[in-house]
Amino acid sequence: MRDLAEIYLRVRRETFRWVDPDRFSLEDFAIHTNGERLFVCENENGLVVGFAAVWEPDDFIHMLYISPVFQGRGAGKALLAALPDWPTRRYRLKCLVKNTHAMTFYRKLGFEIISDGASPEGDYKEMRLNGNPSF
Hints:
By secondary structure, the protein is of the alpha+beta class.
């Protein structure tokens, strides 16, 4: 689990540049994933490159984090495709508006914006898989 916590911390600090990085800690991972089902992606050498955390009672993808050096190589798509009943289940997620790279990623995969919200890290869009993912 330490590998996952380190990815979570590093990606948050590098991606959410508008948030004070001292607000993030290694311990956040255990707290934020409590009760969630974890899906782990490894490369061909067994190195953990990313993970997804899902709150199954609501089909809610709480987290999808990929180590920066592996972003853009298909790990995120592989994690989503590994989710139960993908793509027929209408998974939801929240994506920070300022995280434009992730917003683009989810929109290209068939997620549609269904509402707006705000969090301590900034405004977000709630999105739902439209049933026709494009991969």
